Amino acid sequence: MTPGTIKAEFKSRISEQLELEEQGTERFRVLTPFRFDDGDHYEIVLKREGDRWILTDEANTLMHLSYWIDDKDLETGTRKEIIDNSLALFSVENRDGELIIPIQNERWGDALFNYVQALSKVSDVSFLSRERVRSTFLEDFRALMSATVPAARLAFEWMDEEHDPKGNYPVDARINSMRIPLFVYALPKTSEDKINLTQIALLTFERWGIPFQSLSIFEDQEEVPRRALARYTDVSGKAFSRLDGNEDQIAAYVRRVMNTN
User: Fold this and answer.
1) How many domains, in total, are found in the chain?
2) Which residues pair with 93 in a beta bridge?
3) Domain that holds residue 44
4) Looking at the structure, do residues 113 and 163 belong to the same domain, yes or no?
5) Mind listing the pLDDT tens digit for each residue in 79-94?
6) Helix, strand, coil fractions of the chain, as percent rounded to 5
7) Cβ contacts of residue 205 below 8 Å, gap of 6+?
C-alpha cells in the first residue's frame, strides 16, 4: 500500500486534518488534531519494524505524563490500572514505556483509531493529579439519566455487539424501547479528544446503517475549541451547552423523545 493510500485511509477513518509526514525510509510521522491537556499533540510514528508495520509513540506519552506525575505514581495503584486496562482494551503493547500497536491485515485506519483511543484513555490519568480538582460532571450526567429514564430502558457504556464487538465506539447512555433509540453523549470541557472521537463514532454508526438519534450534553460548551465544535455540530443532533443549570430542560427533552418515538 502506498503512502498516499495509507494517508487517505487514515483521513477517512480519523480526521480530514490528519497529515502523514515522511521522515526517512519506511518511517512517517502521523500528525493528528489530538492533544494532551496542556496543548501538546500526541506523538505518533508509523514505521516498518522487521516484517511488520507498527504505530508507536516512541515512549513520548508516558514521558509526557511524567512531567506532572511522578514516575512511581504511574507504575502503581489506580493510575497503573487505568493505563494497563486502556492498553489491553485497544490491543496496544507497553514495550518498556513505548506504546505500540501492529497493523493487522492492512487495516490501517482501524489500527490508528484504536491507537488514538488508547492514548486518549492513558492521558486521562492526568485527571488523578493531586493538584487538580476532580470534576463531578460525569457522575452528575449519570445521575440525571438514571433519575429521568427507567432502568429497563437505559444502558450506560452501550456498544453494538454485532458491528462493534470490541466496544471501540461506546455510547455513554443509550435509551431504548422505542422505534429509533437515543444515543446520549457526555462531553467534558477538558477533553477535545472525546468530542473528536464521538464525532467519528456518529459517522461510523451512520455508515453501518444503524438507526439512531443523538443528544450531546456538554459540561461547558464555551470552553470547547471553536474548530472542534464546528466540526462536531455538522454531525451531531440535539445538544445542550451545559449540564449545570439545564437539568430540568434536559430531562424534559429526554422524556418528550421517549414519549413521541
Assistant:
1) 2
2) 100
3) 3-128
4) no
5) 788 889 889 999 999 9
6) 45, 20, 35
7) 160, 169, 183, 212
